């Protein structure tokens, strides 16, 4: 998501803050209400600049597919995330990160922000999502539960 947004707006990816939520794959989505670029809400920037957020979301989802099909693996992205997570745990940093954590309200594990430290997930973050984003999160949760049930059959 950061790459897609930064390329569209011609800014450094580190200037893009926000979250992709749900399952890591086809049902993941960008929660645009959480995305800010240099302090400006992405929803406002998209409206002002006539940017199609669904198209950007699609770019975020297919980005991993593109890397995989180009390289036949995604180990650099996975390794970078693993190192960041390990450093957070080792240093007991109490850092907010998007990690897979059990969400009681959805009855499954989802990619969702949490505070992470030496003891694992210390606190679940509560985002203020739009109704549309909550619906997408429920769809993603249902997809995860369906795939899990299929794997157990």
UniProtKB/TrEMBL annotation:
Keyword Nucleotide-binding: no
One family name in Pfam for this protein: Ldh_1_C
Keyword Coiled coil: no
GO annotation, biological process: lactate metabolic process
An example molecular function term from Gene Ontology annotations: L-lactate dehydrogenase (NAD+) activity
Limits of the Lactate/malate dehydrogenase C-terminal domain: 2-149
Domain of life: Bacteria
Gene3D superfamilies on file: Lactate dehydrogenase/glycoside hydrolase, family 4, C-terminal (3.90.110.10)
Protein keywords: Oxidoreductase
PANTHER family xref list: L-2-HYDROXYCARBOXYLATE DEHYDROGENASE (NAD(P)(+)) (PTHR43128), L-LACTATE DEHYDROGENASE (PTHR43128:SF31)
UniProt similarity note: Belongs to the LDH/MDH superfamily. LDH family.
Name used for this protein in its record: L-2-hydroxyisocaproate dehydrogenase
Organism: Paucilactobacillus suebicus DSM 5007 = KCTC 3549
């Amino acid at each position: 998501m950061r790459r897609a947004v930064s390329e569209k707006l011609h800014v450094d990816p580190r200037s893009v803050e926000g979250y992709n939520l749900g399952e890591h794959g086809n049902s993941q989505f960008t929660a645009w209400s959480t995305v800010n670029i240099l302090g400006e809400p992405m929803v406002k920037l998209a409206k002002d600049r006539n940017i199609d957020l669904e198209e950007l979301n699609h770019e975020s989802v297919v980005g991993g597919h593109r890397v995989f099909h180009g390289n036949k693996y995604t180990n650099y992205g996975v390794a970078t995330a693993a190192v960041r997570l390990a450093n957070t745990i080792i240093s007991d940093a109490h850092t907010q990160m998007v990690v897979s954590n059990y969400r009681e309200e959805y009855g499954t594990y989802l990619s969702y922000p949490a505070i992470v430290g030496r003891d694992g997930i210390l606190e679940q973050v509560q985002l203020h999502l739009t109704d549309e984003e909550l619906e997408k999160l429920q769809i993603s949760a249902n997809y995860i539960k369906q795939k899990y049930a299929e794997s157990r059959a």
